[in-house]
Amino acid sequence: MFTGIIEDIGIVQSVNTGRNSMSICITSDLITEDVHLGDSISVNGVCLTVTSFTLNSFTVDVMPETFNATNIAQLRPGIRVNLERAMSAAGRFGGHFVSGHIDGTGLIMEKKRQANAVYYKIKAETGISDYCITKGSVAIDGTSLTIFDVTQDVLTISLIPHTLEQTVIGSKNEGEKVNIEVDMLGKYVISKLEKTKQAPTITSDFLTKNGF
């Protein structure tokens, strides 16, 4: 479990790519201060497992599902990535519940500065916007952000100067792909409502057939 508050920007050191999988080595002095084999690390919002590490780098494996469903396959040596370690029970909860399980990707359609902020319009994969609301939360490349507008499949988010400097989103431009994870609580609510709609209508015949 993560919060969407990015701890460090890592640098991809090396990538070993298979047909539909890959192994990535990432440098980060901060993340490796307290890392163990099997730890979960959010890399651009994707929950990945540490398979080895050194004093200033760690390695993660990417399975086919993640390779095909996220922007991780586009990583190359030298690219910067958002990093966050799994949430500590004793730490502050500054963002929102982020699982690291990407719901889909989106393309940056527009990047526009307004006063001290930069607004992004992101065209999301079909269906993702169904789980988004204005003023709700969304994780873009693992960063917890507020949604300022939802129009069909387009999400509008805004980055303050601190977020621009401390995450990789600030350096991304129109046409680039981002990972999107919608609010976990929203997914549970919608799932429950959909199941409720599918439930049989409770009538006297229904009760009789079921032993009441």
Give structural notes.
- The chain is α+β, with helices and mostly antiparallel strands.
- Helices cover 16% and strands 40% of the residues.
- The chain contains four helices and twelve strands.
- It has helices at residues 64-69, 161-166, 184-198, 204-209, and strands at 8-17, 22-27, 40-43, 46-53, 57-62, 80-85, 104-114, 117-124, 137-140, 143-151, 154-159, 177-182.
- The chain has a six-stranded antiparallel β-barrel with strand order 1-2-5-4-3-6.
- It is globular and about 70 Å long.
- The model has no long low-confidence stretch (mean pLDDT 91).
Question: Could you give the topology of this structure?
Answer:
Blueprint lengths: L7 E10 L4 E6 L12 E4 L2 E8 L3 E6 L1 H6 L10 E6 L18 E11 L2 E8 L12 E4 L2 E9 L2 E6 L1 H6 L10 E6 L1 H15 L5 H6 L3
Antiparallel strand pairs: 1-2, 1-6, 2-5, 3-4, 3-6, 4-5, 7-8, 7-12, 8-11, 9-10, 9-12, 10-11
